[in-house]
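Input record (Table S2, row 347):
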Amino acid sequence: MPTTARAYVADSAGSPLRPGTVERREPGDFEVQIAIRFAGICHSDIHTARGDWAGVSYPIVVGHEIAGIVEAVGPMVTRHSVGDRVGVGCFIDSCRECANCRDGEEQHCLAESIRTYNSVGRDGLPTAGGYSTSIVVDENYVLGIPDGISLAAAAPLLCAGITMYSPLRNWDAGPGKRVAIIGMGGLGHTGVKIAAALGAEVTVLSQSLKKQEDALRLGAAAYHATSDPATFEILAGHFDLIINTVSADIDVDAHLSLLAVGGTMVMVGLPSKPLTLRTWMLAGFRRNLAGSKMGGIRQTQEMLDFCAARGLGAEVEVIPASQINEAYERVLASDVRYRFVIDASTF
Ligand code: NAP
Ligand code: ZN
Ligand code: ZN
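Output record (zinc ion complex):
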């Protein structure tokens, strides 16, 4: 039987989120129905709900950092059982046949993966995300959450965690590597924890000194404020890898100047406006500029297992759904320590 789930809905780019409902289908043969316990607030939810990016179809239920418990499974499901702790991230399906899907890079599916929200599902209906009490997802796109982390701390790993883990692994962050993370918000703080756990020497580049103590507690070896011009002198040519999580305009040239010869700056923050740079900044020191988007299912499970084995989760502030709009304002003001997670029982 289809069920009606409680949810929080954005009706238009300009309207605050409001309580509502969403219809969830009965799980198909290979599908899992999940009782959502926690949903993280990713900055991408805000970009989407507020129409910063083109192509949003309203009304919309956002949320792609989902942690919960399996409450029903279709008859052919073998990967998950009722009662399992599970998570869902940014996409819930893909073509499974293209070269990228076969390589475990489903987030880059050549036929376009089906996003957890703001997509059309295989049933032809708009997909609706994690700001709701339940969701139905194909078993192959559902991740297992090991016992080592609470569901609240695990939820943000499904987007923020994998978005940082993937470039850290793909660009070999580890012992002997100097890694900088620009912006210590939801993505940034999980990146600090994961990069430190991988053995890299981690530096946080934040706008101010306000988060210094926290950064060092989470595993950073150093911390500098980008508002201080001396930072760019002290750290010139210093890093092997820089990951930029900022969703606003940054001075790309100034940050590129911090890379060592052959170093790479990976853009994961997604500002709505184009950035500019001088190509000289790449030519000098043979620097690389790259981007990265989430991670595939296999790597996401690897990340969850890695984090759980080390007891690593996000630093979360759990809020009731009634505080979502206020939380959005605090994220926009860089006043989040370090991820808001919504208690799904309050939707
Ligand atoms: P967040 O929690 O808001 O963190 C962003 C951080 O950037 C802030 O906490 C702040 O850190 C810094 N910052 C904010 N405004 C700034 C400014 N004007 N100048 C310099 N620094 C600034 O956001 P998030 O959830 O981590 O997401 C960050 C970005 O990544 C968003 O654009 C989001 O859409 C994108 N994203 C991308 C992917 C992907 O797959 N590529 C996945 C998820 C999210 P400090 O206070 O430390 O400076
Ligand atoms: Zn996200
Ligand atoms: Zn594909």
